[in-house]
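I hope you will forgive my troubling you with a question about protein structure. The matter concerns a single protein, recorded as an amino acid sequence and a row of backbone structure tokens. Please examine both parts with care and let me know of anything in them that strikes you as inconsistent. Thank you for your consideration; the sequence and its tokens are set out here:
***
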Amino acid sequence: MRIVFIGPPGAGKGTQAELLIETYGVVHLSTGDMLRAARDAQTEVGRKAEQYMSRGELVPDEVIVDIIGQRLEEPDCAEKGFLLDGFPRTIAQAEALDEKLATMETPLDVVLEIRVPEEELFQRLAGRGRADDKPEVIRQRLVAYRKQTEPLLEYYTKKDLLQTVEGLGSVEDVFQRVRGVLDPLAG
């Protein structure tokens, strides 16, 4: 299965991703984790990414696309399928992903949106205590999400790939909704 997760920061994508990996055996590709690892390792890409991340801005497409494109070519992704978490975030990234997957002859199976009201997102993010979760940075991230990522919902709806699940409730409640979408594809 080849899945893209879409949802604002704090929607629970990371938590649901862990359950999906356990259940379906797909490879988890989290751009956030990849970027934080690159930043912490002080790689060239990591230092570039940190300049944007520390201000709550999105990392430029070319940096992200390079990281993701290289990772998708690794054998485990072809063998097990993958879950992209945090990518694509823009139409340009979605188009770059489509091109990459077309050359590999491995199109997406589904784009799964986890939808959560903004007030709930703010409370969740403020409670995490990460350095990039200060109130002004949270606001900036939510604004960036709305402006740059929400157009993806229309993009993937036109491609007949988008499925939306409600992100409120217990982790298990949300996971059952996610399974309702994915189980038919796993067969």
